[in-house]
Amino acid sequence: MIKAGLIGLGYWGPNLARVLHQTSRCEFTACCDLDPRRLEKITRQYPHLKAYRRPEDLLDSDVDAVLIATPISTHYEVARKALHHGKHVFVEKPLADSTARAQELVELAEVVDRKLMTGHTFVYSPPVVKVKELIDSGHLGDLHYLSFSRVNLGLYQKDVDVVWDLAVHDISILLYWLDEFPVQASSFGRSCVQQAKRDVAYLWFQFPSGPVASCEVSWLSPQKMRRTCIVGSKRMVVYDDTDPSEKVKIYDRGVILHQPETFGEFQLTYRTGDMVAPNLANTEPLLIEIEHFFNCIETGETPRTSGKFGAGVVAAIEMANHGGWQPDVALAEHGEVIVTGGKR
Which pLDDT does position 225 carry in this prediction? Predict the structure, then answer.
């Protein structure tokens, strides 16, 4: 059985530890954190774990795979060391803090022949997978636009702004749904509370097949909102991740333009049909994601959110942040984005 170790026991690490302990796809044997209090707490909960203060010591152990949930600025260095030690690597989102570093990890994983996977948990969520099925089947028709709103009061992060913290989720969903990389992007925002760190931002993307997408993210909102609207030529979908029972709603609604019978006469018909809320599995996305990682190690399958996919997400963030910078990208199989350079 695959032996797994976890590096990073801060905000998200304990969730990974719980799932690693729960799954039968691996043997969770080791953990690492710089804070001895966190190590003491996790080893009280899971007494069988071997605890390490230094990532290098865990990497020298007999674990086969490493899961990294450290601050974003450390992702590249910790993942690079893990790959050099011959470990399969799972890195929480985003893969790295720059496109160049993300791509370097992708290339290194290929050289050492180890799996590199990015932790974009929403891509494994049953509602997101269902919307993907609706898009790919043509049930929605030609996509016109997508709008995302991901806002809340907090949680403020110390090392990144709201785009790197929250918009990364929506961008990963966009790339998964559309299987293509944007040709144009821009963003603007404001730092209301902390200097030099945007806590509210708006991003726009245009895709080569026609759809446009907008993304609103904020740490400074009185209400929590996780709402996405997808508008197609045949049907429309609302995906609300905060809805406890009907996260996906499919609306048979739209506008029909009739060709004019006389010059200058255009007529519009508004179609208001039924709403359908499909039944969705209640499986935890994080468990699906982690078990997918170990399955890919065993079978050699390419992860859905591979290193290449994660590098594409980072490239899209930088593209929006830089107001239209376009990396040289190509789509590999499974819609993965390969980043090979960039220009302005």
Answer: 97
